[in-house]
């Protein structure tokens, strides 16, 4: 089974306090909650072959927390995961990644509403913006057709930290 | 906010051991896991104004466990929640239920693939059978338009017991 986990960054500092949105860090509470979510995923036996993350600070910090608890040995910044990034770019990457021809488990760390939209497109072929994804929330998809993931995934998990902790 | 929780019955005795599928009881493990899920929902502050359940034994037992842990004071059998039941019948009930004109929280206890299909229709207007709903798994929807729920719900939770426990 090939699985894709889409994970939203944790609670970050207020936008009003940072002139550059890209540099907003996680708050202390955001770090703690993200680490608790990560520990829960680890407890359940989850391992990621790779974590791709939006290059924004709040996403990179989230990805590093996931790696630090032991969920993966590899984190890589991936520009299309920044806000308003393009799913097609990810699909092109996927098709050449080497993860597309074996059982694998990847995590994508990014932002809303993109992660919800990407998930809907991967599962249903288009988005209606109907998924609620809270900060440090997790979406889990099975990729049924590894050669053509769009419209060919199943949804097995959608949760906010509330239900995991 | 008006919320709808769709909950699949717990692990039941093998079909081969019961000539009447409607009478298959929960196994001991099924009862335990269902009770753990129910306790977790209670811990998170969930209360149901009403639990509607499929009349099949494994569903009724699941609903009674939810009530017994304190999630609701009311359980009612509802024939359209039996396998291959009709969502329109539920919508007709809803429209006359009195729950449709206030904030409320209802649980529907039933079977797969119906619960997944109903959820997809409530959220996206049609089903592609893309939701994985395990035994004692939980789906959580916000009903955005109480006068016309079909296609007007958001998905905020989809989980198997694995992630809750």
TrEMBL record, chains A, B:
Substrate binds at residue 58. Pfam families: His_Phos_1. InterPro entries: His_Pase_superF_clade-1, His_PPase_superfam, Mito_Ser/Thr_phosphatase, SixA. GO terms for cellular component: cytoplasm. It comes from the Bacteria. GO terms for molecular function: protein histidine phosphatase activity. Gene3D superfamilies: Phosphoglycerate mutase-like. Keywords: Hydrolase. Transmembrane segments: none annotated. NCBIfam families: sixA. This is Phosphohistidine phosphatase, SixA. It comes from Gloeothece verrucosa (strain PCC 7822).
């Amino acid at each position: 089974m090939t699985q894709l986990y889409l994970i939203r960054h944790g609670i970050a500092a207020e936008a009003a306090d940072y002139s550059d949105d890209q540099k907003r860090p996680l708050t202390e509470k955001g770090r703690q909650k993200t680490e608790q979510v990560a520990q829960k995923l680890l407890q359940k036996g989850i391992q990621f072959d790779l974590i791709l993350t939006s290059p924004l600070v709040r996403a990179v910090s989230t990805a590093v927390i996931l790696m630090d608890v032991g969920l993966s040995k590899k984190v890589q910044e991936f520009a299309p995961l920044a806000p308003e990034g393009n799913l097609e770019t990810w699909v092109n990457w996927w098709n050449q990644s080497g993860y597309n021809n074996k059982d694998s488990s990847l995590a994508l760390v990014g932002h809303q509403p993109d992660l919800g939209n990407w998930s809907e497109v991967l599962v249903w072929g288009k988005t209606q913006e109907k998924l609620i994804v809270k900060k440090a929330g997790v979406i889990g998809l099975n990729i049924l057709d590894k050669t053509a993931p769009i419209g060919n995934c199943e949804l097995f998990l959608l949760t906010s930290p509330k239900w995991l902790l």
